[in-house]
């Protein structure tokens, strides 16, 4: 359910319902009704505002892909930020390998 995903992501970010509503520019009462699954069909505009405020893709509100793979949403955000900054996959792999090597040197 969308409401359960929104609530979980909000809580992972340690945001109150009021903080999320303010940051997204939506009514707290409507957000509450979504989280409690009283309203089950939010608009695309609402989902875009919430996903932006939570810094997640809209898909993560619609599908269980993150939970299915047991990937912490913070990791997904880090990878997305790396992609947006222009880091290539190879550079990211090299960084990981360097850190593994560095840890083994201790």
From TrEMBL:
Example GO molecular function: protein dimerization activity
Among its keywords, does the record have Ribosomal protein?
Answer: no
Kindly state which keywords UniProt assigns to this record, in alphabetical order: DNA-binding
Output the InterPro entries linked to this UniProt entry.
Cro/C1-type_HTH, Lambda_DNA-bd_dom_sf, SinR/SinI_dimer_dom, SinR/SinI_dimer_dom_sf, TransReg_Diox_bact_type
For this UniProt entry, what's an example GO CC term? cytosol
The cross-references to SUPFAM superfamilies, in alphabetical order and at most eight, read: lambda repressor-like DNA-binding domains (SSF47413), SinR repressor dimerisation domain-like (SSF47406)
- Domain Sin residues, every copy: 62-100
Q: What is this protein called?
A: Helix-turn-helix domain-containing protein
The major lineage groups are: Bacteria, Bacillati, Bacillota, Bacilli, Bacillales
């Amino acid at each position: 359910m969308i409401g359960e995903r929104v609530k979980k992501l909000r809580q992972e970010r340690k945001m109150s319902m009021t903080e999320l509503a303010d940051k997204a520019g939506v009514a707290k009462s409507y957000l509450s009704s979504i989280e409690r699954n009283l309203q089950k069909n939010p608009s695309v505009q609402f989902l875009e505002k919430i996903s932006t405020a939570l810094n997640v893709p809209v898909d993560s509100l619609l599908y269980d892909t993150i939970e299915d793979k047991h990937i912490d949403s913070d990791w997904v955000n880090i990878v997305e930020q790396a992609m947006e900054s222009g880091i290539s996959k190879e550079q990211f792999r090299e960084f990981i390998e360097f850190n593994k090597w560095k840890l083994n040197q201790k």
